[in-house]
Write a structure and sequence with these properties.
4 helices, globular
Length: 80
């Protein structure tokens, strides 16, 4: 989905970005595959760049972080 749509999905449904759910479930699945050494068919460099972009940008179309500037500055997001 990242190759076609530009982003790693948070919670895809029928090959469509849903924009729902919190967190980054696609990235958790990728991390698990890496830990289990199941990456022979994956382009790790491409995936890393997409994960980094999603984690450090609020402008990613299908899953950027909210309040990313404060998160990168203070390492947390205030609820106040």
């Amino acid at each position: 989905m990242a190759r076609v749509g530009g982003d790693i999905p948070r919670w895809p449904l029928a090959n469509v970005y849903t924009g729902c759910m919190i967190g980054s479930h696609g990235m958790v699945s990728i991390a698990e595959a890496i830990l289990k050494n199941q990456t022979r068919c994956l382009n790790i460099t491409f995936i890393y760049e997409k994960m980094k972009l999603a984690g450090t940008s609020s402008t990613v179309k299908h899953g950027g972080r909210i309040d990313v500037d404060n998160y990168t500055k203070y390492n947390f997001v205030s609820t106040l």
